[in-house]
Design brief:
The complex is a heterodimer of chains A (288) and B (172). Chain A contains nine helices and no strands. Chain A is an all-alpha fold. Chain A has a single domain, classed as Up-down Bundle (Ferritin). Chain B is 28% helix and 20% strand. In chain B, a hairpin with a 7-residue loop joins strand 5 and strand 6. The relative contact order of chain B is 0.14. Classes of the chains: A mainly alpha (288), B alpha/beta (172). The interface between A and B is medium-sized, with 35 and 31 residues.
């Protein structure tokens, strides 16, 4: 996300679709009040959930650049990060239009506080070792694939357009991450142990992905988003297939207290945003 | 940035052609010479990136451009090049806009584009799991080295026959 020409290069030109014009009056209520009704404030909040998932995960993967175990993996993780950043830009630009307060995609990326970020906590978890990065990637790639497949037929044309492109890229990401998880799980004793440990550590964070709240229900009822409950079976089957081939055990379900998509995060997101937002926080409005 | 392939001479002739052929047809001819920044042997037409070209009631030339990969940095350069080339050819005012749906597919690369890729040393896209032919020696005895390459659109392969590494356009 370059701070430079971002405004000019937004995806403007696509005739603004439903929602952006309809209920512009309800601007500032984007908080955690009732999300009843398909207002643009509600839709903004939903778009931020998807956008922030891509942005935060892209930022995490970017941390591997120059540090990955091999050049091929450096390239792979950086390329996936780039795709995610591209998704985030399109979605945040749309979010800025829905908000209608003159903020840009960059403002939304660089000037929101941690509790305004609505990504699931899974994607903000630290990279850890390579096994932890790969486990996180498999779990979220499979989720994003199911989500984008559902969104590709959304009644919101903008979301459908972004998702239609992203679904192809995400399928490629999952092929890469699943291939690695199978190699790690079905590899040496050391790699198997590390992969299983990462799976145990990250698994509780997957619950949130499928927990449907009022906003999710509203979006599904309006034909804008797929039902999260409907995505779960496909995700679970895909993950099960990969874990079986990787000779890894599916962890038991455990209690999970975080709700990143409602803005309740663990400690890690603050550090991530501090690094990502440093330039704009230190030199407000800086451009190059 | 695109001045190199639109010399003064070409501009004059383009201008002359404009009178005979009309604005849209001339614009297609200009776009056929706008290079992709990452793979300069391919034009934006070879890549299938131009989805629509029309004149608006207000007299502007509207160009719909489809991005390849969502995060590809070349997308912005391509938009700027298209705008500059058409303006330079006297076809402005120009409005370049992005279309996401339907999503760009490597199936939209033209037959000419595919043969240009091969001649340039990049294997054209083939469906996942199918054999990738070495663009140098035409051997089918090749292997994937890295699923990701130097740009978002390419993967890295190696030929076991001639032992040369080569890039392959990812199938999307």
């Amino acid at each position: 996300m370059s701070t430079s020409a971002a405004g000019r290069t937004s995806t403007a030109g696509r005739t603004s679709t439903a929602g952006s014009t309809s209920t512009a009056g309800s601007t500032s209520t984007a908080g955690n009040t009732s999300t009843a009704g398909n207002t643009s404030a509600a839709r903004l909040r939903y778009v931020l959930r998807i956008a922030d998932l891509s942005l935060v995960l892209g930022q995490r993967l970017g941390e591997w650049v120059g540090h990955a175990p091999a050049l091929e993996e450096d390239l792979g993780l950086a390329n996936i990060a780039l795709d995610l950043l591209g998704q985030a830009r399109l979605l945040l630009a749309y979010g800025a239009e829905l908000e209608g307060r003159g903020r840009s995609e960059d403002d939304l990326a660089f000037l929101r506080a941690p509790d305004e970020y609505l990504n699931p906590t899974l994607v903000e978890q630290p990279n850890g070792d390579f096994a932890q990065t790969i486990v996180r990637q498999v779990l979220i790639d499979a989720f994003q694939l199911a989500l984008f497949e559902g969104l590709a037929t959304s009644r919101d044309e903008r979301l459908a357009g972004v998702a239609g492109k992203a679904v192809k890229e995400t399928r490629y990401h999952l092929r890469y991450s699943a291939d690695w998880l199978i190699r790690l799980g079905d590899g040496t004793e050391e790699s198997h142990t590390r992969a299983q440990a990462a799976l145990e550590r990250l698994w509780p964070h997957t619950r949130e992905l499928f927990e449907e709240d009022a906003l999710d229900s509203d979006m599904a009822a309006a034909g804008i988003a797929p039902r999260l409950a409907d995505l779960r079976a496909g995700w679970s089957a895909e993950i099960g297939r990969i874990l079986a081939e990787a000779t890894l055990q599916r962890p038991a379900e455990r209690y999970h207290r975080w709700a990143g998509k409602r803005g309740e995060h663990g400690e890690h997101l603050g550090y991530l945003l501090a690094e990502m937002q440093w330039m704009q926080r230190t030199y407000p409005g800086a451009r190059w | 940035m695109d001045a190199a392939h639109l010399s003064g001479r070409a501009l004059v002739s383009t201008g002359a052609v404009l009178l005979e052929r009309g604005r849209i047809e001339t614009a297609w001819a200009v776009l056929a010479r706008v290079e992709d920044p990452e793979i300069p042997v391919l034009s934006v037409l070879d890549l299938g990136l131009i989805r629509a070209l029309e004149e608006t009631g207000a007299g502007a030339l509207r160009v719909a451009v489809s991005p390849t990969y969502t995060g590809c940095p070349a997308t912005e350069v391509i938009r700027a090049r298209v705008d500059a080339a058409l303006t330079r050819a006297g076809l402005g005012p120009v409005e370049v806009y992005t279309v996401l749906a339907p999503a760009w597919s490597t199936d939209w690369i033209t037959a000419e584009g595919r043969s240009k890729l091969t001649a340039y040393g990049i294997a054209p896209p083939t469906p996942h799991g199918s054999v990738v032919i070495c663009p140098r020696c035409r051997s089918s005895d090749t292997e994937l080295l890295s699923a990701f390459g130097s740009t978002p659109c390419k993967a890295l392969h190696r030929c076991r026959a001639c032992l040369e590494p080569f890039e392959c356009f990812k199938c999307l």
